[in-house]
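Bug #2210: C-alpha cell dump truncated for TetR/AcrR family transcriptional regulator?
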Amino acid sequence: MAPQTDRTLRSDARANLERILLSAREVFTSRGLEATLAEVAEHAGVGVGTVYRRFASKDQLIEHLFVSRLQDVVEVSTAAESMPDPWEGLVYFFTESTRMLAQDRGLRDLVVAGRALPHSLGDPATQGKLAGAVGTAQGEIHRRTAALVERAKEAGALRDDFESTDLPLLTQAVQAAADFASAESPELWKRVLGFALDGLRATRQGHGALGVPALTEDELHRAMNRLHGVH
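Reproduced locally. Full output below:
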C-alpha cells in the first residue's frame, strides 16, 4: 500500500474537523451544552482523542460553534429595532428569537440559562472569551429591545407598565414550554408566545392565532411524568 501523502493527510484532517463540527452542532442542538466531547466523538464516528487534538476543552468547541450564533440573535434585535412599526418590531424579535432558542438547545443554554460556563473543562482563557461574547451579545440585545419597548409604549401599542427587563422573564417562560413538551409538541412554545403577546397589547379586540393546538390530556400526562422523572 502506498504511503499517505501530506495532501491526503491534510484532506483527512479537514474531513475529520468538518465531521466533528457538524456532529457537535447536532449534539449540542438536540441535547444542550451538557453534552460531552465523548458524545460528540461518538456521533461523529471518531475517537475522542481526535476531538481533543482539535479542541483542548469543551469550552473551545462551544466558542468555535456558538459565538457566531450569538451574533445571529443580535442581528434579529437589530432588524427588529429598525422596523418602522415598533409593535411589529417587538413581535418580530420575540417570535424569531424564541424560534431560534427553541430549535437550538445549545444556543438556549448560552442565551437564556447561561449553563455553559459552569460545565467548562478548565480552560480559563476560553471561559473568558465565552463569557465576554455572551455578555456583549446580551448587552447589545438589551439596548436594542429597551429602545423598542419605549417606542412601542409611546405609540400606545404596548401596555405602559411593561419594562424591558420583563422581556427576559417572558423569554424564560416561553422557553420552559419548549422543554416541557418537546416530545409531544415541539412547537408548543408558539401557544405560550401567543398568550404572552396578547397580554402585552395596550388594547385589543379579540386575540391572535396560537399556531398549534393545545396538548391532549394524555400528552399533558406524559409531559408531567417526564418532568417529575416518572417512567
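Output looks complete on our side. The chain has a mean pLDDT of 88. Marking as cannot-reproduce; reopen if the truncation happens again.
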